[in-house]
């Protein structure tokens, strides 16, 4: 056995136990540096804490076995990021991503490898090329000049907003036809289908709401946003000049909310001190608008579901009123027939009465008047029911 080799146990069960113990004692992390190079680390939490200099309580937020709400925390030398499946630690020159082999995290890793490297650092500056490409290169250069931590944070925010927006779109695609089918035909199958969709919508709304609340809380506190300027703190919190302030700006290239360079320059001119968080506020505000739009879609879907439930309840009430009308109709007929049967039964009994002699025609008139009385009584009962609104017209 060499020093760098591994011992393969003879017993397969022992190998499984050893692998489980190793999985418990260490976790898989992927390290991405400023050049986009990735390295898989299999280290325990103490090594991670020592590397990025954060507390155990901050690392506990990233534990996939524990349920913590979406969080963006700024520490002295790192940003602790917990957004759904994206659990990362961002420093001024590297990103540590947890569970990099997850199917939802793999696209984030690929996007980080594409966006983290600064084109100005890996591509020589040719004046002729800039003249040929014109303003496009200038705009790309501005985006690449943003701090490393902002580029990584933007990738994470973009990924989670796009992920939740895609889930919302899939839910809308399935929910609206199901609701329309339920309004046309009320059945157990359609009701169960809508029930499952409503449960999925409630869970998704809670997830979107957590991300939105975290961004809103971060936007409301300038001190929390200032803690995310890792490069500025690393440089000793030196005042930002007008020419260098543009390097702090990170615009969103995906959601159609870019700010023109002229407006950015005017903002930087007005605020050029070390406490300026306007650039980060623009970045967070852009993704806050996107996640808020996703939440509005879910709210609209919830209102549509509530309207459908009201419509279904109205239909059920209508059917219930029809049953009540039928029951009242049958009850009125039964009462009227019982009175008619009572009269005819009394006069039809075979009992010798002295007044019954030579008065046979009386029985016929009693039966006739009893039938008329029964019909009038039935009409009066139905008229009174309609007047009180117990049955429909």
TrEMBL record:
The keyword Magnesium applies. Belongs to the CorA metal ion transporter (MIT) (TC 1.A.35.5) family. Residues 117-139 have a biased composition (Basic and acidic residues). The keyword RNA-binding does not apply. Magnesium transporter that may mediate the influx of magnesium. It is a multi-pass membrane protein. One of its GO terms (molecular function) is magnesium ion transmembrane transporter activity. Its main location: membrane. Residues 194-221 form a coiled coil. The chain crosses the membrane at residues 328-349, 361-384. It is found in: Membrane. It comes from Dipteronia sinensis. InterPro entries: CorA_TM1_TM2, MRS2-like. Residues 117-145 are annotated as: Disordered. Keywords: Coiled coil, Ion transport, Magnesium, Membrane, Transmembrane, Transmembrane helix, Transport. This is Magnesium transporter. GO terms for cellular component: membrane. It holds the Pfam family MRS2-like.
